[in-house]
Amino acid sequence: MQKPIHFLLCLFLYSIGTAQVTTDTLKVGYTSAPPFIIESNDQLTGINIWLWERVAKDLDLTYELIPMSFSPMLDSLRTSAIDVSINPLTITGERSKYMEFTHSFFASNSTIAVSETSSFQKFIQFVESFFNINFLKGMFILFIIIFLFGLAAWFFEKNKNPEHFRPGYRGIWDGLWWSAVTLSTVGYGDKAPKSRNGKVVALILMFGGLLFISGLTASIASSLTVNKLSSNPDSFNEFKELPVGSVKNSSAHGFLKDHFFKQIEVYDGVSPGLTDLKKRNIDAFLYDEPILKYRIKQDSTLNKIQLLPVKFDVQFYAFGLAKDRVLLEQAISQRILELMETQEWQILLNEFGLTEL
Is pTM, for the whole model, over 0.90? Predict the structure, then answer.
């Protein structure tokens, strides 16, 4: 008999908690964050709108939607000026100090948006790469090797092989020519050493040069690479010294500060940040991947912006609530869990091209 009584008691307390939050009109803050919250023709659609409307209907919640900028919305939650934020808020330890989070309904990550490089800019980068310090060092060492081995070959061959290595300064040129074609493995055969010392020089140059040329080729290829942004998971480090942007007080913004990015421009939303990126006022914009991907896909003016294959800062999205709304949070979390187990939820994610991590 104790189990039914216990169950009824829990159900009674749950109904009381739910009733406590339905007597008031909840102030629900939001800001545009496609595909989770989409504003179009004074109408709201998107994943989070669908989820919130289902939860509010099932729990019989009365609410008022209040449009806000992202950072003021978080401040309003901190001061309990609003009761709920239905944006896809990333659950963090810092935020948990002043707000409650529902159960997470989606997992994502941050990524990097950059402006595509035009053909002219690629050409300029290609020319500039010839002045790369590593490239110049490699070419300097190459000329030194050609000169030293060419001079040595001429010295040993000038008396015993004057037909190929002439006396005087013209013979030095013969030695340099032989050294260059031998080192580059071209080997025209128009000049060849005949003395024992000359052949030893040739052997050292051929086998030593083979190793050196292999390393130099790799170095030159690296120096002349036009696109220097790799797909390595740590490639966001390449932007630490460059001006980058993110949404103010977002999880991505906090990540950049924690990882010592030096030039961070903050924006109230994604659109102004991507606009600045398009104008090349910043070199990259770092933010949540699904939001960036959807925004770029839907806005034809952003077709010159691309996302790098870089993923970092794994995030778990949830609704945020004021600290004094614990009972409401529990009720909403329970309903979110139930909705996530339905086929409707999977269809909704597929409709917006989203997949769980």
Answer: no
